[in-house]
């Protein structure tokens, strides 16, 4: 099979690494990819939202399946675009159509979906510009802290946790009246604050049956001890020690089954990944968010723990016979440490030469923000590399990944040395 992966981050590097191991693979392409994905396949200089360009490439290179990494092309309807064209209709796209992608593209849609199908989540109400006064009055009746969420995609910045009523009112005003997050905050979900420990569960579905992928925990803050600004993710571990079988059974029964059945009841076809962001509140799972893709850097910890052929599973998704496909997981623990450019998530410089990656022997190095110019691999983004170790114990995996992160060099390199150690 000829496969095209859409995206350019650590997540897509992990997909490329895993799919390159499949005996069913003929040729792998990654659009646009990065300096690392080029080792597993061929990079194609196309933007992830250039649907016409992607279509031409797919037809010219006899692509048999398209795997979409990031949310933007899904929310913008790449899957619908393929279905709408008679010459592309039969080429499977892994990732939901626009209707299903609304689970991530609109927080209000996701909340209504959860309420409709009895999926446990924080209590909430939504407001727009016309109902701003009602929103301000509603805030007066709520406990603090309180969570404000821009309805649409806001590059991971649209969630505000307000600790005073004054701050909450100002922020609601800024989001609705002053378009703080542009069109994304033309509607705002005001949500009850949940206290607990976060983790993520990933599901692969053909719209009918599903496989529950390994759970993971990511570390979002830039600083050690989970301090400082939010980032795209500084590291991850899988499995999650506090998500035992009893908890995961609750997740399946209370969240995964009603989610899949809810999609069916609502007549929303869904072929792809569902990333369920959860809060463990005293042993009970609550959904914080749905994403319609895999997480980054969670994918870098999750995929190394899947022993089965991912391409075979994706074919099951495409053909609608996922339930028949073999699915075996590794009992080992994966730990991922992300190397970032100095200054990230604020301003940072790019174009720094990366060296010593070849000295990493016992971890997998997934590229994220990298590019190759004149034979030199350089930094080209905030998150540069993700280093994943797979070991028998969490302690060994953490030690290995952290030590290997230290072996790589580029000017301004920073990484957290405490990823996962809080879980020991
Ligand atoms: P999101 O952009 O939806 O991933 O939200 C960003 C972060 O805000 C989450 O990872 C949580 O840490 C936090 N968060 C979101 N919703 C809630 C909530 N209802 N209660 C507590 N924290 C939340
Ligand atoms: N690591 C969080 C995300 O991918 O959204």
Automatic annotation (TrEMBL):
Pathway in which this enzyme or protein is active: Purine metabolism; IMP biosynthesis via de novo pathway; N(1)-(5-phospho-D-ribosyl)glycinamide from 5-phospho-alpha-D-ribose 1-diphosphate: step 2/2
Record has Ligase as a keyword: yes
UniProtKB keywords: ATP-binding, Ligase, Nucleotide-binding, Purine biosynthesis
Gene3D superfamilies: 3.40.50.20, ATP-grasp fold, A domain, ATP-grasp fold, B domain, Phosphoribosylglycinamide synthetase, C-terminal domain
UniProt-listed Enzyme Commission number(s): 6.3.4.13
Catalytic activity: 5-phospho-beta-D-ribosylamine + glycine + ATP = N(1)-(5-phospho-beta-D-ribosyl)glycinamide + ADP + phosphate + H(+)
Keyword Nucleotide-binding attributed: yes
Superkingdom field: Bacteria
Domain ATP-grasp: 111-319
SUPFAM superfamilies named in the record: Glutathione synthetase ATP-binding domain-like, PreATP-grasp domain, Rudiment single hybrid motif
GO BP of this protein: 'de novo' IMP biosynthetic process; purine nucleobase biosynthetic process
NCBIfam families according to UniProt: purD
Protein family (similarity comment): Belongs to the GARS family.
Protein name: Phosphoribosylamine--glycine ligase
Originating species: Parapedobacter luteus
